[in-house]
Amino acid sequence: MDHxxxxxxxLKDLDFIRTLNIQSLELVNxxxxxxxxxxxTIRQLQLIxxxxxxxxxxxxxxxxxxxEILTFCADKMGQTDQNLVSQIxxxxxxxxxxxxxxxxxxxxxxxxVQLTYLSINDCGLCNIDALxxxxxxxxxxxxxNNGVDITSLQHLTQLIILQLNYCNLISVDALxxxxxxxxxxxxxxxxxxxxxxxxxxxLSALDARYNKIQDILSIQNHPxxxxxxxxxxxxxQQQLLKLAKMMMEINRPIVLQKQMNKLSRSLVLKHNxxxxxxxxxxxxxxxxHVLLSTRVSLLLNIMNALEDCQ
Length: 310
Description:
Radius of gyration: 24 Å
Distance between the termini: 58 Å
Mean pLDDT: 71
Largest sheet: 13 strands, mixed
Shape: elongated
Number of helices: 5
Low-confidence stretches: 1-8, 23-29, 258-283, 285-310
Number of strands: 13
């Protein structure tokens, strides 16, 4: 809803609306945004880049009792009410909450135990103790919260998907108890050891690009890894070749990424379908991103790698 025309007659018959998406409006509050809607029918509400929106108190004038998904996204931190979370506690059917670029007090989140999906990205968080009571959470994203303390995450044992990208983490020890975790992304942190993740038996995908990992070979002891992403720019070639061979032997893919001149291209190499001439051509034309899967070698030195990994 980029241009709002307020007309009672136009709005009175819109009681069928289930999703309301309001973007890039100069809103001060939410009075009269949905004056004629049967607001109890709304299941999903999105307020995106409404930078003058300083309060949602007027939403209380509407019956949003069936609201299930709520998104607040601002492109300027600090524009919204820090008490935003406490103002939406009344939405007891809310199962998904997305907050992006908000300067907020997250303590009231401890009462929203019904949440199964929570995304709090780029909100300047450090202390997230309030989250430890959210025992029903299955998906959590805390991207771009530089310096956030993830100790409290050990209590969220129902988590299946977890994103902690750009958080300046140095350790993943706190994640040991998350036995149901299947996907973990820790892009652009300072993690050195991933050994603690070997205890997560259901973890099948790990994106650990742009870290300082020193024990990449430990991943071979994990029982269920299906996908492993790591940058190879600073990794010893010998270790990478060993890792490639190991992943091929257990029939699991690995993604190795290297940035060059801020460009990234991708290639999928499968030894069982590539003939010699194709391999030679790819060797000359390779990009910065290579996917290793069943019987696939490193593009760093593709011919030697193929020979070593037979």
